[in-house]
């Protein structure tokens, strides 16, 4: 089984991936953000490095999906390939930070990759308001994230909500969607809140079999 955690920057994807992997003895796969050679440059000059950044993420996640599908164990993944294509790249294009030519080339590459993979069996979406995202980002203190703008997070949130509403319709036969409201559920610090998430995950998993 393939479980994936989706959500905006600072929503708690890595934390929940770790907690659920430990609880269920699943194999965790984390986003390689810190290993992306374009990330620091991107936050310094988004327009110059947006295409490079997104292509790196795309090929990295595509290879991860292929790897995960070969694994006989249940795996849980921090962020999906769909978020790159339906949220981050379109947002950069709409903000004028990625040219139309680059964006169209990027989408063609994604469509090819999408035809070769399947969506996760379970998608957990972490919904969080901008203040919650900012608070979490400040707590973890990554240097390259200090330049992230509020309006950037807000735009991403709007795209996440649009994508999730379409995801359930598009992939309902092949993927189950679970939404966790991070503003109301502090699973990273409260065991009872984590317990609520686990109960919901149990319900979704049991519905698959």
Set out the fold topology:
Elements: E1 2-7, H1 13-24, E2 27-29, H2 39-44, H3 46-70, E3 75-78, H4 81-94, H5 100-114, E4 122-127, H6 130-140, H7 150-171, E5 176-181, H8 191-206
Parallel strand pairs: 1-3, 1-4, 2-3, 4-5
Short description:
This protein is an alpha/beta fold and 209 residues long. It is 58% helix and 12% strand. The longest helix has 25 residues.
Index terms:
12% strand; single chain; 5 strands; five-stranded parallel beta sheet; Rossmann fold; alpha/beta; 209 residues; 58% helix
Q: In words, what does this structure look like?
A:
Helix content is 58%, strand content 12%. It has one domain (2-206): Rossmann fold (3-Layer(aba) Sandwich), CATH 3.40.50. By secondary structure, the protein is α/β, with parallel strands linked by helices. It has helices at residues 13-24, 39-44, 46-70, 81-94, 100-114, 130-140, 150-171, 191-206, and strands at 2-7, 27-29, 75-78, 122-127, 176-181. The chain starts with a strand and ends with a helix. 33% of the residues are buried. It is globular and about 45 Å long. It has eight helices and five strands, in the order E-H-E-H-H-E-H-H-E-H-H-E-H. It has a five-stranded parallel β-sheet with strand order 2-3-1-4-5, with helices on both faces.
